[in-house]
Write a structure and sequence with these properties.
Among the domains are: 43 residues, no CATH class; 51 residues, no CATH class. The chain is flat. The strands form six sheets. Strands 1, 7, 8, 9, 10, 11 and 12 form a seven-stranded antiparallel sheet that branches. A three-stranded antiparallel sheet has the order 6-5-13. It has a three-stranded mixed sheet with strand order 15-14-16, with no helix packed on it. α5 runs antiparallel to α6. By secondary structure, the protein is an alpha+beta fold. The relative contact order is 0.12.
């Protein structure tokens, strides 16, 4: 009988509380997308007390979740990040893989989403003898075995949708990829495919070749020391599902504040729409047909007909005061509370009616709350990058994955690499915290004073590794040594010239 699953977490191998996916990750994605239900209301006209008349309108939210995640991601990780290795051969290879896969560009994008949802996973794979990088969002990653420090085994889910012959008929395929350690020390990746006609269920297991031609049921890896995936986790403790190894995004603990921002912004926009200029006028003056010529501009919707004669009722203008100042102050109050809840400095965002949501652009102080939060998240991010680089190296040294068993890295590296510390240094762009030109000028003064080395100066201001800085200094010294000394005037000639001048 085929295996059947209602949800992915029903699989007995998956060791995680379903609440993380069904509540917190799902909820975070709603706020990140800004997909809120429409507002239902009773209009003034149409309710006679006997038949309730309900209308709907879009909910005009201020998507602070997206704005905050985008801003935090750009502050935390710059696309100019550089990677250097103690082993030059590893450095050339990993940097080439990263460049071919647009790693920095994709990482900032995935980090943005992870700040909302709590994390992401990334894994290497081999295609046409090239190492590729695949990304997994929080709702695709399921831990199997973990401890307080890391997740050692996982299931990665990906969904494919195929259209049927009938309109609005679809078939949903879910591929589950299980990464597991076996008792004999081998590492296996097991693939299972499930099929369903209902988007909300995983369905029953079907053969892999129904969608994926050539995909093996199981791949066994020998001589692997680390998992062939890397997981980034938001560093704050998960206070919603206490024993979960998964990270928690900024939505979970700020949902009420986000609701307050959205409700206030929606009320403000509705106030503007319903508070427009209105003129009450007798019905005869706003009837436009062959027998009635308009007494007012027919292109405006400001006039509302009332049941009165022109003799008894003169047009009256209704002016509604829109509470701009009150709404603006309230929105900014909740934004400040949201900033505090996310660990960024107050003033990062502001709202005004003229230009909407604004982002501060000034250089951020190194002792600010934003800086401390960035350092905390960078620690987790650097670990993820290091774990990914380690997995890439391990995969690149596995002959079975490549044609003719020729690996892109020489086999003799296997015994010389410490997979617990691959010697990776990551240089991040700190220009958002310190103005680059100001820092360089100040550092030049410190070097001239003799209290900073030239090597430190090059590493700090030009993103060089220690080896690169030493090579640069060596080249500078060599070039200076080769420069000819300025021509010197012989002392006797100089003295003769001086005597002649005095005689004159």
């Amino acid at each position: 009988m085929p295996k059947e699953l209602m949800s992915i977490t029903d699989d007995s191998r998956i060791n995680v509380n379903p609440e993380m996916y069904d509540t917190y990750i799902k909820e975070a994605l709603v706020y990140y997308k800004g997909n809120f239900p429409k507002v239902k209301y009773r209009p003034s006209i149409g309710n006679d007390g006997r038949h309730e008349y309900i209308k709907e309108r879009p909910f005009n939210a201020l998507n602070m979740t997206k704005a905050m995640c985008r801003r935090m991601a750009s502050i935390i990780f710059g696309k100019t990040a550089e990677y250097s290795f103690e082993n030059e051969q590893l450095g050339v290879f990993i940097n080439d893989v990263f460049q071919q896969n647009r790693f920095n560009d994709n990482l900032q994008e995935k980090l943005e989403k992870a700040i909302a949802t709590g994390g992401f996973a990334v894994r290497p794979y081999v295609e046409n003898d090239e190492v590729k990088i695949a990304w997994c969002d929080a709702d695709q990653f399921y831990p199997l075995e973990s401890n307080s420090n890391e997740i050692k085994e996982c299931c990665i889910a990906s969904t494919t949708v195929k259209a049927g012959e009938e309109k609005n008929e679809y078939t949903y395929y879910t591929l589950l990829e299980f990464h597991q350690w076996q008792p004999d020390g081998t590492y296996t990746i097991t693939n299972e495919l499930y099929k369903s006609d209902n988007e909300s269920t995983v369905g029953e297991q079907v053969p892999l070749d129904e969608v994926y031609d050539g995909l093996q049921d199981e791949v066994v890896f020998h001589n692997i020391s680390r998992p062939l995936f890397a997981y980034f986790k938001m560093p704050s403790a998960n206070n919603k599902v206490l024993r979960s190894p998964l990270g928690l995004g900024i939505v979970a603990n700020n949902k009420d504040t986000l609701d307050n921002i959205n409700y206030t912004h929606d009320a403000f926009m509705w106030d503007i729409r319903t508070g427009k200029r209105t003129v009450l006028a007798p019905a005869q003056q706003v009837v436009f047909d062959q027998n009635h010529k308009p007494a007012f501009d027919p292109d405006t919707d400001a006039f509302v007909a009332v049941n009165a004669s022109p003799q008894d009722f003169k047009p009256q203008e209704l002016n509604f005061d829109i509470r701009v100042e009150e709404f603006t102050q309230t929105i900014n109050y909740w934004i400040a509370e949201f900033e505090s809840g996310c660990g960024v400095s107050n003033g990062t965002f502001s709202f005004n009616p003229q230009s909407g949501l604004q982002t501060a652009t000034q250089v951020i102080s190194e002792n600010s709350q934003t800086y401390q939060t960035r350092e905390s998240i960078l620690t987790s991010l650097d670990k993820c990058i290091t774990d990914l680089a380690t997995a890439i190296i391990e995969m690149a040294l596995t002959p079975a994955l490549f044609n003719n068993g020729e690996t892109p890295l020489p086999a003799n590296l296997l015994n010389s690499i410490d997979f617990g510390n691959i010697g990776l240094s990551i240089h991040h762009d700190d220009s958002v915290f310190v103005d680059a030109n100001t820092q360089r000028d100040e550092d030049l003064k410190v070097v001239a004073a003799g209290i900073m080395s030239k090597k430190t100066f090059l590493m700090r201001n030009y993103g060089m590794s220690e080896d690169q800085a030493e090579q640069e200094i060596e080249q500078i010294n060599k070039e200076n040594a080769e420069k000819p000394m300025p021509a010197m005037t012989p002392l006797s000639q100089a003295m003769t010239s001086t005597d002649d001048d005095e005689g004159d």
